[in-house]
Automatic annotation (TrEMBL):
Domain of life: Eukaryota
Residue ranges occupied by any SHSP domain in the UniProt entry: 1-96, 97-204
Listed name of the protein: SHSP domain-containing protein
Family, as annotated: Belongs to the small heat shock protein (HSP20) family.
InterPro entries from the UniProt entry: A-crystallin/Hsp20_dom, Alpha-crystallin/sHSP_animal, HSP20-like_chaperone
Organism: Pocillopora damicornis (Cauliflower coral)
Regions annotated as coiled coil: none
Amino acid sequence: MQRQRSGSDERIHIVTLDVRNYSPDEVSLRVEGDILVVKAKHYSDGNFGFERSEFQRTYPVPQDADPASITSKISKDGYLTIEATRKIVKTEDDFPLGGFETRAGEVARIDEKKFSVLLDVTNFAPEEIKVKVVGNELTVSASHESETEGHYTSQKFNRQFVLPKDVDMNSVVSRLTDEGKLLVEAERQALPPPKERFISIEKGKKD
């Protein structure tokens, strides 16, 4: 069974599903591009042997919804409601150093001295956020789960950036702003000039 209802100006309702036959840990959500995938699996030993039930549903993420803000809640009567925050258009004034929007909720900049990115992580506590660098790839991830009065909420966030070759990977630092945004910065360093190399010319063999 699937319910449909309209969301508020700030929140967008995506779908409500009947998951009364599943516990919260048997239901999973993931976003693949602009597609939301909902899965549920249940296994148990019943009176007539082994019982198994499962389903998978896919839904397009609304164009005006921010995929990183998708949240889900399971009500006391067993209905899963999935919502997202409406995208907010960012301007260069939202970034301390000036910059450009890469997608909803984030602004990045590369200038002569540093690489910077500003991410909206207002829905996560500091201990729920992880920043790591592997090679020249910067990854910022966050995960939040909570249960209040029978309502289960799960929210995840993951962003990856390929850093310029001249960025000093050891200089990457991050901090939370007073507005609850995460600012990640890294210094750029001068690369050595390309080495000059002479290429020998081979003579063709005579027939």
